[in-house]
Amino acid sequence: MATTSNERMTQVRKMLRFAEEHGSITNYDAVYRLGILSPTRRICDIKALGYTVRKAREQITDASGAIKSVVRYTITKEEAA
């Protein structure tokens, strides 16, 4: 089943809101906290909207104590001059 444009934008809004509230978002956050199965694709959508996205790899410990390698995205919107 294909993702509709409306579903894509809802997922984009969820990711942007999470990143704004927490300062950044990881692919792990997107999948396990927000239910977004294609966070990398949504990051592409966010970039297409004019946001600047910086990414960094890091390791986290999940709720079960397992160490996971994740990508942390920091998202900013440049203000018009």
Note the topology.
Elements: H1 5-22, E1 25-26, H2 27-33, H3 39-48, E2 51-61, E3 67-77
Antiparallel strand pairs: 1-3, 2-3
Helix pairs in contact: 1-3
Could you explain the architecture of this structure?
The chain has 81 residues and is α+β, with helices and mostly antiparallel strands. Helices cover 43% and strands 30% of the residues. Strands 1-3-2 form a three-stranded antiparallel beta sheet. The protein is globular. It starts with a helix and ends with a strand. The model has no long low-confidence stretch (mean pLDDT 91).
- Main β-sheet description: 3 strands, antiparallel
Assign a percent range to the helix content.
Answer: 40-55%
Report strand order across the widest sheet: 1-3-2
N to C succession of SSEs: HEHHEE
Number of strands: 3
Q: How many H/I helical runs?
A: 3
Binned strand content: 25-35%
Q: From the alpha-carbon coordinates, what is the Rg to the nearest angstrom?
A: 13 Å
How would you classify the helix and strand content by structural class? alpha+beta
Briefly say what this structure is:
This protein has helices at residues 5-22, 27-33, 39-48; strands spanning 25-26, 51-61, 67-77. The chain is an alpha+beta fold. The chain is globular.
